[in-house]
Design a protein that fits this description.
about 130 residues; mainly alpha; about 65% helix; about 10% strand
């Protein structure tokens, strides 16, 4: 009986986490929409703006971004293509491995990221406050 209650509590905790994630994702999408972005778009811009790739360069390989934003390679490729079309990122061939693609934030992308960063962080603060 105690084991069953512990298992049920675990399942409920997991479902609470999923529900919080879904609500937060919706709120982020709603807040960022007025800036022409969705939550996944912002996550990519945020990785590019704030992170340093393992090799210390200013650009990330697509697979490095995928590890941080938890999107499939194909979904991320489509998202990056859309951001590139909007002038927010640029893609180029990886110098070390011509099969690899590197992504860098443009000036326009950096400016938009700076504009929406406080919006995204405010949503996170509100949604994740205990």
């Amino acid at each position: 009986m105690a084991a069953k209650k512990a298992e049920q509590a675990l399942v409920e905790q997991w479902r609470d986490i999923l529900a919080l994630h879904a609500r937060t994702q919706c709120e982020l999408d709603r807040a960022l929409h007025q800036h022409g972005l969705c939550a996944s778009d912002f996550e990519v811009l945020d990785v590019l703006a704030g992170g340093v790739p393992p090799d210390g360069s200013c650009s990330f390989r697509v697979q490095e971004i995928a590890e941080r934003v938890h999107l499939s390679q194909s979904a991320l490729s489509r998202l990056i293509a859309r951001l590139e079309k909007d002038g927010l990122v640029e893609r180029g061939m990886c110098a070390e491995d011509r099969r690899g693609v590197q992504v860098v934030l443009t000036g326009k992308g950096r400016a938009l990221h700076g504009e929406v960063l406080p919006v995204q962080r405010a949503v996170l603060s509100r949604m994740l406050a205990n």
